[in-house]
Design brief:
alpha+beta, Butyryl-CoA Dehydrogenase, subunit A, domain 3, Nuclear Transport Factor 2, Chain: A, six-stranded mixed β-sheet, 49% helix, elongated
Length: 295
């Protein structure tokens, strides 16, 4: 049993990464991995020829089923649903197990919501874990040809989703700092920095103030953002801090030491701001208060 436990703990980061990429939620990913552990401890060892492959296969299929159920629940979600961020910190915690998952950008997680669960799994296994098509086919119970088609379709859908997924940390930090400096100093300059097809999505989950729909275009985005910034100026105890969320820079807003908003954005190929993510749901931020600034 000790050997099995050690093997499972070695694989835990990969299992969490698969599950988080599939579900976009930390607690849901942890639940999937717990279920994998329960099945592992009750399975017949003689029937598990390759334990690591078995663990990843089981995690993937549990995550597929969980995603189908989650999407049904999200139909009644208040306002837009956004994936939960992973904010880096230096405190020993379960966050350490999510190191691999932090490599998955929030924009990619958001865009993958457009994929069917099995299609999403095929894409993740291929692109994030470099699985060969024979292994993907065995995991999903599909033919290799079908898996190749699913991955190809996923690429096309994600490329058409809008956000860039190849931006560097430096580019993202510069865009974030330039835009929010302009937004606080010169409305017209900030307006010109937004792409004509820019969108801004805020997730309050019905528990914090947020737009109930996606904002489209520079005028609408700046109208709402300007109102928020003006309201902030009238409040005491507000501070902003640059943090790292899912591997890229993000702006954290604290009110009386409590993290209540996380904002990040991505520019298009021409440098114009195209995609803005605003997380306000406290259920997705409550474990993030210890986040440290980028140095």
């Amino acid at each position: 049993m000790l050997q099995e436990t050690q093997l499972f703990e070695t694989e835990r980061p990969a299992l969490l990464s698969i599950s988080y990429r599939m579900l976009g939620e930390r607690s849901a990913a942890e639940d999937v991995v717990q279920e994998v552990w329960l099945r592992f401890t009750t399975a017949d060892p003689g029937k598990i020829e390759h334990p690591r492959a078995w663990l990843r296969r089981v995690a993937t299929n549990i995550a597929i089923d969980t995603l189908r159920s989650a999407r049904a629940r999200r139909e009644s979600y208040v306002g837009p649903w956004l994936p939960e961020p992973l904010i880096a910190d230096h405190n020993p915690s379960t966050e350490d197990h999510f190191v691999m998952a932090q490599e998955c950008e929030l924009a990619l997680l958001w865009a993958m919501e457009r994929l069917a669960p099995t299609e999403r799994a095929a894409f993740i296994l291929r692109e994030a874990f470099d699985a060969d098509y024979a292994d993907i086919a065995e995991t999903l119970g599909k033919s290799e040809a079908s898996c190749r088609q699913m991955v190809s379709r996923a690429h096309k859908r994600l490329q058409a989703s809008g956000p860039r997924f190849d931006i560097t940390r430096e580019e993202a930090a510069e865009a974030l700092e330039r835009f929010f400096f302009a937004a606080t100093q010169n409305h017209d300059v900030a307006l010109r920095m937004l792409a004509s097809d820019a969108i801004a999505i805020s997730d309050g989950g019905g528990k914090a103030s947020a737009a109930f729909r996606t904002l489209h275009g520079p005028d609408e985005i700046m109208q709402v953002l300007t109102s928020v910034l003006e309201r902030d100026r009238a409040l005491k105890g507000i501070r902003h801090e640059l943090v790292k969320a899912n591997g890229l820079p993000a702006l954290a807003r604290y009110h009386n030491t409590v993290l209540d908003t996380l904002t990040t954005l991505l520019p298009d190929r021409n440098g114009a701001i195209q995609w803005i993510y605003i997380m306000r749901n406290p259920d997705k931020l409550h474990q993030q208060a210890a986040a440290n600034s980028i140095v």
